[in-house]
Amino acid sequence: MLVTLVLDTDGGISEFVMKPIDRKTRQVVTRKLAVDCRGRECGRALMTHDGLLLGSGAVADLYEDPEGNSVEHGEIVETDANNATLRNLAATVGRPQRPVGPVAPDELLEHTVMKAYALVPTALANDLRDSLAGGDVYRVAFRPRASVVDSPAFVLANASGIFLVQCRPCLVEFVRLDQPVILEDQLADEEDLWDDWQVSTAGENTGGDAW
To answer: Is the pLDDT of residue 18 over 50?
Structure first.
C-alpha cells in the first residue's frame, strides 16, 4: 500500500508518494553474525536471575487493569495527567491539508529528526514547486495512523529531490563553540563567596567581627 502526502495550496493540489529513507538506502549495511567456537551461528537469548534461558519468541507483553485482568490493545485509551481521555487525531495519509509556511529555518533546527521520507510527486502545483526550489520550508501534519500525538513534520527540497522529515521538539540547549562552560565546582565557589559576602556585610552593619 502506497503512503501519500497531499498538500493543498493556492496553486492547486500536490500529491506525493512517500518512500522511507533508512540506513539500508543510505549506505551499505554489513550483517554481523555471532558464532561459537565451532563457527555455528548463535542466537540472542535472555537469562533470568535464577539462570533460566529464554530463547527468541519466549517473551510476550500484555496490558492489565488494576484487578490483574488482561486488556485488549484496541480497548486501551490514553489519558493526560488529570486522567482525562485524550482525543485521537485522524490520520493524515491521503487527506488534503494546507501546509503552514514558509516557516523560518530556525523552527526546523529546534527539532530532532526521527524519520525521513523521499517525496515522489505525482502532481505538483507550480507555486509549491517554485517555493520549495527557492529554499522555503513548510510545516505539515503527518500521522500515518490515528494518534493522540501530533508530531511536527517539515517539507523541504534540495538538488536531490523533495523530502519530509518527521521530528520531535529538541529539548537540548544549543551550545556555541566559543560559549564558556560553567562547571559545578565554579558554581559551588560562587555560592561560598556569596555566603562570605553576606556574613561580612552583616558584621559591618552590626559592628561585630567580619570575615
So the answer is: yes
